[in-house]
């Protein structure tokens, strides 16, 4: 019993301790509830205040709406009155103009009648004078008298004096119609070049003659005058900087010796791509190297973006005045400046530039419509535009998914030259659900038949390689950041270092040799932009040099 009493005592003491802790917790919770109650009351009061404000605001809004409706009705009534007054004024002006025209015609007729009246009176006076002369001569021979005519009647051969008035009146009437154009002329109604016609209005654009006279391309750019330089800037798509250039530029040498900082300071050229465009053009003037890409203007580039399936960037490229020469020297940071951040879109532009290099920047190298080929080769597929790829999808019974490729950047160059671009990537871009396995298998079969067995094997090997990162549709490109150790080499770097280009010139030349002989059996190593191994490139380059370029 003693042990039981002790256990009961211990339990009782524990319960007492729990009771005290519970009492303490209850007091704490009570304080918290009271604090929350105070907060709730404050919130309720603020809610009531905001409700009052909301009600007053709604009342003001209703009053404003009523006032606006009344103003709108007054406006409509005033517009109706104005339209009525305009019609009335037009009617009055029409009547006034018609009356003025009739008055003008009446005045003209009155003047003509007055002239004729004066002439008739003058003829009457002459008649009386000749009659007096006839009476005074006392001519005895009546025959001679009958054939005697006045000076005026000789023209109309009037034989007697009684026809004098009628004769003379008809002869003056005939003379009043002389002095103008000969209406009876049969050729008067026909148009003759060099005759009377309205002159042409002022020309709004430069003619080729004025363009050539403004700038003689045989003269070195350094010797161009200020006006020639400003005219060239306007024709080159940089006309917004002409006004400041007139204040700074003395001749062409001013631009040749200027730095990008001078362009920004003196010409107000804040856009870095505008400065790059100007630098590339000035470098072409200095080196006198003729580049085929310089013949493609910035208007063509916007159409090119449509062809490669990236029309959403047309405004940025157009605002930056990106032309064919700039396309050739685009860098990753340039694309980021143009708000192109998608990794897939970077690869799309990279492969499209390779296709341009392979075709020597032929503006019509991309194929937009299906041809007569039944089974196109990879050398033909690499030139397919985005629209042509959609036509292929319709041909393989995937027409319902074809519109999803708009704005995707998918074109033939990306399909062939990018080893990470597979049928799975295309299925993601087409939004084909993963559960539709049969549809995806059909797409994979059609994709393999399109790119060829060799390319399919190559893509499979590249995907199975160690360290392979699959190509996704959501990956973003980040700008290149320089490390601390790289700052010492900034002055040694060339501004046009090919390693910074999205499509390096050397790799493009290598791709040119490969794409020109692209076929179903020999298109290995054709994507230099896509991180191939150096030994693979060396092998392809040696093979290209051994075989030589094909026509």
TrEMBL record:
Span list, region Disordered: 521-551
Keyword Secreted applies: no
Keyword terms: Coiled coil, Phosphoprotein, Repeat
Coiled coil: 106-140
Superkingdom field: Eukaryota
GO BP terms in the entry: neuromuscular junction development
InterPro entries the record matches: LIPB1/2_CC (IPR058914), LIPB1/2_SAM_1 (IPR037617), LIPB1/2_SAM_2nd (IPR037618), LIPB1/2_SAM_3rd (IPR037619), Liprin (IPR029515), SAM (IPR001660), SAM/pointed_sf (IPR013761)
Cellular component per GO, a single term: presynaptic active zone
Gene3D superfamilies attached to this UniProt entry: Transcription Factor, Ets-1
Family according to the record: Belongs to the liprin family. Liprin-beta subfamily.
PANTHER family: LAR INTERACTING PROTEIN LIP -RELATED PROTEIN, LIPRIN-BETA-2
Cited function: May regulate the disassembly of focal adhesions. Did not bind receptor-like tyrosine phosphatases type 2A.
Protein name: SAM domain-containing protein
Native source species: Amphiprion ocellaris (Clown anemonefish)
């Amino acid at each position: 019993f003693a042990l039981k009493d002790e256990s009961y005592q211990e339990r009782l003491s524990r319960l007492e301790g729990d009771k005290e802790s519970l009492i303490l917790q209850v007091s704490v919770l009570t304080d918290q509830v009271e604090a929350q109650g105070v907060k709730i009351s404050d919130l309720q009061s603020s809610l009531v205040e905001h409700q009052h404000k909301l009600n007053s605001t709604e009342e003001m809004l209703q009053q404003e709406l009523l006032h606006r409706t009344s103003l709108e009705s007054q406006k409509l009534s005033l517009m109706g009155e104005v339209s009525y007054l305009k019609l009335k004024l037009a009617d009055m002006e029409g009547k006034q103009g018609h009356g003025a025209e009739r008055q003008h015609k009446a005045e003209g007729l009155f003047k003509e009648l007055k002239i004729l009246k004066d002439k008739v009176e003058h003829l009457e006076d002459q008649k009386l004078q000749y009659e007096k002369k006839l009476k005074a001569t006392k001519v005895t021979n009546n025959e001679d008298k009958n054939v005697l005519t006045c000076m005026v009647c000789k023209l109309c051969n009037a034989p007697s004096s009684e026809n004098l008035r009628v004769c003379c009146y008809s002869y003056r009437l005939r003379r009043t119609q002389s002095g103008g154009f000969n209406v009876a002329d049969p050729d008067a109604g026909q148009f003759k070049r060099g005759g009377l016609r309205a002159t042409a209005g002022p020309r709004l654009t430069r003619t080729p003659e004025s363009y050539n006279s403004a700038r003689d391309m045989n003269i070195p750019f350094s010797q161009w005058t200020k006006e020639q330089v400003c005219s060239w800037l306007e024709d080159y798509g940089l006309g917004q900087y002409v006004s400041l250039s007139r204040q700074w530029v003395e001749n062409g040498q001013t631009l040749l010796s200027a730095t990008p900082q001078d362009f920004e300071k003196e010409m107000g050229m804040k856009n870095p791509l505008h400065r790059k465009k100007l630098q590339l053009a000035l470098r072409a003037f200095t080196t006198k190297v003729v580049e085929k890409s310089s013949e493609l203007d910035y208007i063509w580039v916007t159409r090119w973006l449509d062809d490669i399936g990236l029309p959403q960037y047309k405004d940025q490229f157009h605002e930056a005045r990106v032309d064919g020469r700039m396309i050739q020297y685009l860098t990753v940071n340039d694309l980021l400046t143009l708000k192109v951040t998608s990794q897939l879109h970077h690869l799309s532009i990279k492969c499209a530039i390779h296709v341009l290099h392979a075709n020597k920047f032929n503006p019509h190298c991309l194929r937009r419509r299906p041809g007569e080929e039944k089974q196109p080769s990879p050398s033909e597929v690499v030139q397919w535009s985005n629209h042509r790829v959609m036509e292929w999808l319709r041909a393989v019974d995937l027409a319902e998914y074809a519109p999803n490729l708009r704005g995707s950047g998918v074109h033939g160059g990306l399909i062939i030259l990018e080893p990470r671009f597979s049928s799975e990537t295309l299925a993601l871009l087409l939004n084909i659900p993963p559960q539709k396995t049969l549809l995806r298998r059909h797409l994979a079969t059609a994709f393999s038949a399109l790119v060829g067995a060799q390319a399919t094997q190559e893509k499979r090997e590249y995907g199975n390689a160690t360290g392979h990162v699959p190509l996704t549709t959501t990956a973003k490109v980040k700008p290149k950041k320089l490390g601390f150790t790289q700052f010492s080499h900034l002055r040694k770097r060339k501004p046009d270092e090919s390693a910074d280009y999205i499509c390096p010139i050397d790799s493009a030349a290598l791709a040119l040799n490969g794409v020109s002989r692209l076929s179903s059996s020999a298109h290995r190593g054709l994507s230099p932009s896509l991180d191939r191994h150096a030994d693979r490139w060396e092998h392809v380059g040696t093979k290209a040099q051994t075989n030589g370029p094909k026509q």
